[in-house]
Every structure is written in C-alpha cells, then in structure tokens.
Amino acid sequence: MELLKKDWKTRETKYPKVSYDDIYKMILKKSSSIVKWIFIISLLEFVFWALISFAFKDSESVKRFESLGVDNIILVLSVMGYLVLGYFFYLFYRNYKRISVTDNAKILMENILKTRRTVKQYVGFNLGYLVLTSVIFIFIEFKKDPLLINQVNSAAADGETFKFYASFIIITILMLAIVVGLLLGFYWLIYGVLLKRLNVNYKELKKLEV
Length: 210
What we know:
By secondary structure, the protein is mostly helical. It has one domain. It contains seven helices and no strands. The protein has helices spanning 2-10, 18-55, 60-66, 71-100, 105-144, 146-157, 161-209. α2 runs antiparallel to α4, α2 (18-55) runs parallel beside α5 and α5 packs antiparallel against α7 (161-209). The chain is elongated. The protein starts with a helix and ends with a helix. The relative contact order is 0.12.
C-alpha cells in the first residue's frame, strides 16, 4: 500500500488521479466485503440461536418455567429483543450499502468508524440482554417456582438462609461469567477479526489523505 502511494506521488504531474483512485477502490472493495460479512454473520448468529431455542422448547426446564404463568413477561422480553436485533440488522445492512457506494475517502472513513461502533453496540446489547433476562428469570423463579420456594423455606428452617442465597448467587455469577466469557471469545474470534481488518483499511485511508 505504501509503495503504491509513493508511486502515485512521484508520478503526480503525469498521472494525477489514476494511482490514488486505484488504491481507494481497492480499500473500498475490501471494506465493503468486510461489512457485508458482518451483516451476514449477524443474521447467521440469529438463526443459530433461534434454532437452539426451538430445539430446547420442549425441554423439562423450559416447560417448568412456562408453567409459572409468566407468558406476558416472556413475550415482552422476546419482542424487545427481536426489535432491537432487527434494528441492528438494519444498521449493518445500511452501513454495507453506504460503504458500497461511497466515493469519498473522508466519508468512507466515517462510515468505517460508524460500522465499528455499531458492532461494539451490538455485542454490548447481546451480552447485556443475556445478563438482564437471566436476572429477571431468576427473580421470577424465586417468587413463583414451588420447588425453589421449598428449598428457601427449608434453608430458613435450618437457619442457613444466608448460606443458601450466597451459594446460589456465587454459582449463578460463575455460570454467567462462563457463558459471557464464551460469547466474548466467539465475538472476538469472528467480529474482532473483521473489525481489525476494517481498522487496517481505516489507517490506510488516513495515510492516503495525508
């Protein structure tokens, strides 16, 4: 990239735009391809989790939770999650279309920054939504699940209420930490690599504009 840029500068008087345009078009093509893959992978991720949810919908734990009579809460959380995810899919697609037709290096740099910010917000939402729904479901189970209520009452009768809650909270935090850690690893492996390549393109554009 640097060699192409230097070559363009040395021949600036004879070929004022050719090399610059070639470099820009190459960066534009690579950036457009990266953002397209971000959009595609986000859709594939959604389909994957939807299939997982469908596969476990008849499991004993899911049926037991649904029997607690909290359909309205589940519906609200589901609709909220789908709406926000749909909005992110729209942003990814819009970023891809904008980058694909960009004809200005400065605007392309801005669109790359917007894409990076959108991906980070998307990852943050997914992890935050996971933690939030987990806390809500646990709270519901403590309030409505007869089995868990009996365990709490039994612990209270034995004078071990604090021990019971402390153990439950520690185990829950550890499990959430493991799941969040695995998801972070997945996001770093997939989106992190793509964002790193996008950042390389951004730096090359900055050099091109000097």
